[in-house]
Amino acid sequence: ADDANELAADPDMIRLRSGKLLASGLQDKHSYHQTIKVYDPDNTPRWAAAGTLIAEPSIIQKGPALLQLPSGRVLIFLAAGTQIDVYFSDDDGANWEPYSYRALDTPVGAADIRQIKAGYSSGEVVLLVQFDDGSPNCAQFASDDLGGRFTEVEGDWAAQTAESPEAINIVEVEGAFLVV
Fold this sequence. Notes:
Blueprint: E1 6-15, E2 21-28, E3 34-39, E4 47-53, E5 65-68, E6 74-80, E7 83-89, E8 97-100, E9 113-121, E10 124-132, E11 136-143, E12 151-154, H1 157-161, E13 170-173, E14 176-179
Antiparallel strand pairs: 1-2, 2-3, 3-4, 5-6, 6-7, 7-8, 9-10, 10-11, 11-12, 13-14
């Protein structure tokens, strides 16, 4: 983040099918618009603004998630209170449109969403939402409609595991998800 205009968050980065990298995590300090960056090894400068996402409502994001579907469509998942809003881009992050508002069937346990992670495998999208309800916690959701609506799988990891997740991630292993 630069000193005067940008807020930093936990970034997320994906490799697009084109070979470029797409990153989220920077916001304008005043409008909270998301700056999406692209890394293209064939261009100078290599890192450049791909586009700007103007979410509704525009609020501080601590850790949005990016995901590219097999069709090439890119999704970004943004916190909206205790819910998640989803936006899409069909041009590698240059332009963004709403995909699904309030996509979770069950809101997460607290409005302090810290980080979101998304993964795709075999027609399903899995979403991890880390939040703070007095201590770090996490909820897991699954979607069988490519990220439009999500059904809660686990809403309170801390209660189920007796652990408070400090960091979350999703790894695809042989067509399945590994949540770490």
